[in-house]
């Protein structure tokens, strides 16, 4: 009886843990590895479903308002599990690392601490995937060691980017020496 109770409790705990981490899938036709893949075989990226709960917070940015005080956008950046530890070990992003940047329209107002900007409306996501092997050379969204794609808030699985060189890379030119990533804005990467 005691063994049955322990086994039942262990089983219940396993179900709770799996459900909490999104690992429980009752649909037999779904393949967990495909669900977790951020790029399909052709190199088409999408926003990972569970990045907010399974990825690590890398850092955030505030983009100043064009006029007046506050910010017009807030960017919150997440890294796939293990990316930060790998970067801190050898100063490079590991092959397959995924970065997800949420881009929010910001609202600014007065609070007891002063003028404060906060995230208001999600505009979309920018997703990058490290590719040191050049797996998708024929895809115009892959090159210079990364897969690059922008996704509007209403469509996390369909990019509006058509060519990383014209749609994405120009914003990253100042960070070319650090593998196209503004690493100075991400405290967890510091050793």
From TrEMBL:
It comes from the Bacteria. CDD domains: cyt_c_I. Coiled coil: none annotated. Residues 50-182 form the Cytochrome P460 domain. Keywords: Signal. InterPro entries: Cytochrome_P460 (IPR032033), Cytochrome_P460_sp (IPR038142). Residues 1-19 form the signal peptide. This is Cytochrome P460 family protein. It comes from Candidatus Acidiferrum panamense.
């Amino acid at each position: 009886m005691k063994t049955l109770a322990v086994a039942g409790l262990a089983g219940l705990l396993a179900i709770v843990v799996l459900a909490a981490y999104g690992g429980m899938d009752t649909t037999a036709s779904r393949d967990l590895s495909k669900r977790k893949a951020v790029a399909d075989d052709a190199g088409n990226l999408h926003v990972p479903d569970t990045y907010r709960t399974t990825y690590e917070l890398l850092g955030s940015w505030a983009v100043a308002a064009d006029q007046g005080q506050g910010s017009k956008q807030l960017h919150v950046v997440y890294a796939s599990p293990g990316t930060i530890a790998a970067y801190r070990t050898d100063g490079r992003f590991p092959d397959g690392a995924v970065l997800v940047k949420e881009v929010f329209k910001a609202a600014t107002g007065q609070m007891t601490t002063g003028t404060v900007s906060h995230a208001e409306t999600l505009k979309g996501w920018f997703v990058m995937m490290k590719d040191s092997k050049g797996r998708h050379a024929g895809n115009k969204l892959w090159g210079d060691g990364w897969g690059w794609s922008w996704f509007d808030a209403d469509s996390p699985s369909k990019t509006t980017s058509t060519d990383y060189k014209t749609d994405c890379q120009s914003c990253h030119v100042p960070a070319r020496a650090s593998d196209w990533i503004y690493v100075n804005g991400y405290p967890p990467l510091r050793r």
